[in-house]
Design goal:
globular, 25% strand, 12 strands
């Protein structure tokens, strides 16, 4: 069984100090094949926030990977125009992509955040032409039976009844390309609430999955994270929430995992 720990939206500068520390302890006390942090590690992209985020991230056990969010660049600074992810990259590496390959697991992260856009709300997401196609092609090369996971900050398809929108330019088309490539999970954050739903593309066994925030910027859901467990025929997503003293399971989604055609796969019923 594969186990992933999915964290997102820590927002250092507005973090939930107790919950963030407890999440790090949780990561150290259990076994995970990979820890994924899907963006918004800082609140305003200030150097002091990045320093705190980098210390917290460095103390997490490996293997781990991170991708930036729309808060991970200076909010009001010329660098937003000329070098939006410079501060992020000095502490976490290239903003454009991150990857992990391990036994039974292939993960590719890509950046949906933009410094500026030709629309008023720059917090929303966008895909560059060919961005999702390149990730899909790479993950499609993974051997049969490997869990294929894509990671970005904004949900590519709007979350049903979500507390806010991502409105990713090119998002639905990108999600369709990933689904057609046989990607199992697309992990994201941004909306600060846990979710799991099947995307209406290909065989409908590609799932959009999001986790709660570990910041004080809650949107109707307590601080938390997701634990993801994948077996041969099933994927479970467990949303963990912070009670003020510990993390407890609040909801679990159990979804069918895609099987190879040789095993007689049938399209999943639309959820």
């Amino acid at each position: 069984m594969l186990r992933l720990l999915h964290l997102t939206d820590i927002h250092f500068g507005a973090e939930n100090t107790l919950a963030a520390a407890a999440a790090a302890d949780y990561a150290r006390q259990d076994r995970f094949d990979l820890l994924v942090l899907s963006g918004d590690v800082t609140q305003d992209g200030r150097p002091i926030e990045f320093e705190a985020a980098a210390r917290w991230y460095a103390a997490l056990p490996g293997p781990k990977m991170v991708t930036p969010g729309n808060h991970d660049m200076p909010q009001v600074h010329p660098a937003r125009l000329f070098d939006p992810f410079g501060r992020y990259e000095r502490r976490f590496g290239p903003a454009g992509s991150a990857w992990f390959d391990g036994p039974g697991l292939a993960v590719r992260a890509f950046n949906t955040a933009r410094g500026i856009q030709f629309r008023p709300n720059w917090s929303k997401g966008a895909l560059a032409p060919g961005q999702a196609r390149a990730v899909a092609a790479d993950l499609a090369k993974a051997p049969s039976g490997v869990l294929r996971v894509a990671v970005c900050h904004h949900p590519l398809v709007e979350v049903p009844h979500g507390p806010m929108t991502g409105r990713v330019i090119g998002g639905p088309a990108g999600a369709k390309q990933l689904a057609e490539a046989g990607v199992d999970l697309i992990l994201s954050g941004h909306v600060h609430t846990p979710f799991c739903f099947a995307l209406p593309f290909a065989d409908e066994r590609t799932y959009s999955v999001g986790a709660a925030t570990l910041s004080l910027r809650e949107r109707g859901t307590p601080a938390g994270f997701n634990v993801i467990e994948a077996e041969a025929d099933c994927i479970r997503v467990m949303a963990m929430v912070w009670t003020g003293s510990r993390f407890e399971s609040s909801r679990t989604w159990a979804v069918d995992r895609r099987q190879s055609l040789a095993q007689g796969a049938q399209p999943a019923a639309r959820r």
